Amino acid sequence: MSTTLLYQTNSYLREFDATVMAVDAEQGRVALDRTAFYPGGGGQPHDRGQLGAWQVTKVKKEAGTVWHWLSGDGLPAVGDTLHGELDWERRYALMRTHTALHILCGVVWRDYGAQVTGGNMEPGKGRMDFEFASLHKDLVGEIEAKCNTEVAAARPVHVKILPRAAAFQIPDLIRTKINLLPPGIQEIRTVALEGLDLQADGGTHVANTSEVGGIEVVNYKSKGAINKRIYIALRVPAPGALAEA
């Protein structure tokens, strides 16, 4: 079974219809032929929302199939058509946060040449680890100011799905210390912040850096001799973006 990943080509899709391909009664979950629910990965949490009469509490991708854990009475049957609806406020906050982390990564890579060693996010806040030998208050303030310059630059965000061979012709496509793309993946999804950042990435993003609405570095700390962590939060709300999306 293979699930069509609607979110990969349209992060703004809030509702969709899909057919149940499989039911796992023991775990209380169903697999769909297509989904707009992001199953989690790359530090971005899974989506939540509604699927028919059920609440979607967890989403996970397993060998090409996306499973949806459901809360409610009973389960749908194989072959049923269900209407899905995302918890859009949460998803959009994650899209803004994920794009904010790409801005941070793009600035740090461009201006300081530091690779990413880890990262994680929640709606409206996140953290990223970099291979910095030292990090201090003045440098953190400089990084924050540069990130907000990129937000104000209103850079378009582009998504492409490329054959693996073509993707790996792109210089510096992998910004992480370890290449996390398994050899078996033959198509690579790339996310580009025009003029700033281009990376392999499977998550959801806003269409323009202006939708991030501002970035604040709320903390930073050392996690090792050459491993430094930067915590960010969004300045909310992003002006008019949620209403227009």
Q: Report how far apart the termini are.
A: 32 Å
CATH-defined architecture of the largest domain: 2-Layer Sandwich
SSE arrangement, N to C: EEEEEEEEHEEHEHEEEEH
Shape: elongated
Number of strands: 15
CATH superfamily caption of the largest domain: Threonyl-trna Synthetase, Chain A, domain 2
Give the strand line-up of the largest sheet.
2-3-7-6-5-8
Fraction in helix: 10-25%
The average pLDDT value, as a whole number, equals 91
Domain module count: 2
| Continuous helix count | 4
> What structural category characterises the helix and strand content?
alpha+beta
Strand content: 35-45%
CATH class of the largest domain: Alpha Beta
- What value does the Rg take, in angstroms? 19 Å
The major β-sheet equals: 6 strands, antiparallel, barrel
Fold-level CATH name of the largest domain: Threonyl-tRNA Synthetase, Chain A, domain 2
Structure write-up:
The protein has 245 residues and is α+β, with helices and mostly antiparallel strands. The chain folds into two domains: 4-86, Elongation Factor Tu (Ef-tu), domain 3 (Beta Barrel), CATH 2.40.30.130; 90-244, Threonyl-trna Synthetase, Chain A, domain 2 (Threonyl-tRNA Synthetase, Chain A, domain 2), CATH 3.30.980.10. 20% of the residues lie in helices and 38% in strands. It has helices at 88-112, 137-152, 164-167, 241-244, and strands spanning 4-5, 15-24, 29-32, 34-35, 49-51, 54-62, 65-71, 81-86, 116-122, 125-130, 157-163, 187-193, 197-200, 215-224, 227-234. The strands form four sheets. It has a six-stranded antiparallel beta barrel with strand order 2-3-7-6-5-8. Strands 9-10-15-14 form a four-stranded antiparallel beta sheet, with helices on one face. A three-stranded antiparallel beta sheet has the order 11-12-13. A hairpin with a 2-residue loop joins β5 (49-51) and β6 (54-62). α1 (88-112) crosses α2 (137-152). The chain starts with a strand and ends with a helix. Mean pLDDT is 91; it is low at 241-245.
